[in-house]
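On clarity, I found the account of how folds are encoded harder to follow than it need be. Since the whole study asks how a given chain folds, the encoding of that fold should be made plain. For illustration, here is how one protein appears when written out as sequence plus structure tokens:

:::
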Amino acid sequence: EVQLVESGGGLVQPGGSLRLSCAAFGFSFGTFDMNWVRQPPGKGPEWVSRISNDSGSTYYADSVRGRFTVSRDTAKNLAYLQMNNPKPEDTAVYYCKVRDYWGQGTQVTVSS
């Protein structure tokens, strides 16, 4: 069974840092690109970042470029989203997504 499990969310102050993790189960994780998508309160899903299957390429939404870093450890079936200098507008439920599979999401709240 394909499963994606996010963790690491919580409350963080503006200018702080937070690292989200995504654990993958039930499929060959190293075969596919992996995306992070977020959904702010009251809004639709917003793509955040993507990392290629071999970690050779990374892509970011303009709103997070320079502040967030995506990475993966294929040997451990893990992916990460390092959030530096978060802003209140980064408040959202964050999901990892591989093809049509989504995790359950982890809440990130940026507030002082």
Notes: The mean pLDDT is 96. The longest strand covers residues 17-25. The CA atoms of residues 70 and 81 lie 5 Å apart.
